[in-house]
Amino acid sequence: MIFNRRKRELVAGRPVARPGLFPIDWLLEAIALVGLLSFAGFLIYHFPRLPETVPTHFNVSGAPDGYSSKTSFLMLPAMALFIYILLGLIVFVPQQFNYSVKITPANALKQYTFAIRLVRYLKAVIVWIFFYITYATVRVVAKTDQSLGLWFLPVVLAGIFVPLIIYLIVSFKHR
Question: Which end of the chain is less congested by CB atoms within 10 angstroms, N or C?
Fold first, then answer.
């Protein structure tokens, strides 16, 4: 695709538009950032207290079934930070996303707003999921809990897929 600055649209037909930030967008960004900062603080406090071997994998029922060194435990915050940054950057190019409806000049701003909001929501949810896994792992190590919990997987799947389904419904409704 070739960018035409004068027309402010992509030659292939997708308009370039920058949706504004609404209060819900600020809230989602704040939730993600608070999650990331809480995650960092929690890890800084608990990491030195962890034993040399910690659970690093959990089965479907949430019980630990894989163990590794505590340094491998640092992969969770590294992945959370990477996803936070990556999703934070891609909201700047909504015209490059894949959409389930045709993007036209008439619907571009609404479709971009919905898509960016979904990305912000997913960013916050993913950061908090990684934080919870870290929190639950520390509780398992401390023998306060024995697993992530039976509800963990259904809640995570619902937390990710229900908003995706809602997004698709709203997107089709406003095409």
Answer: N
Which tens digits make up the pLDDT trace of 59-95? 888 888 888 998 888 899 999 999 999 999 999 999 9
- How big is the CA angle at 96 (ends 17 and 76), to the nearest 5 degrees? 115
Cβ-contact 171, 110 below 8 angstroms: no
Task: Answer whether 127's CB lies under 8 Å from 36's CB.
Answer: yes
Residues 55 and 138: beta-carbon distance below 8 Å: no
Kindly report the CA angle at 174 between 159 and 87, in degrees rounded to 5?
40
3-state secondary structure 108-151: HHHHHHHHHHHHHHHHHHHHHHHHHHHHHHHHHHCCCCCCCCCC
Q: Rounded distance, CA 122 to CA 120, Å? A: 5
Q: Is 171 helix (H, G, I), strand (E, B) or coil?
A: helix
pTM: 0.84
- Rg of the Cα atoms in the chain: 20
pLDDT at 94: 92
Residue 65: DSSP 8-state:
E
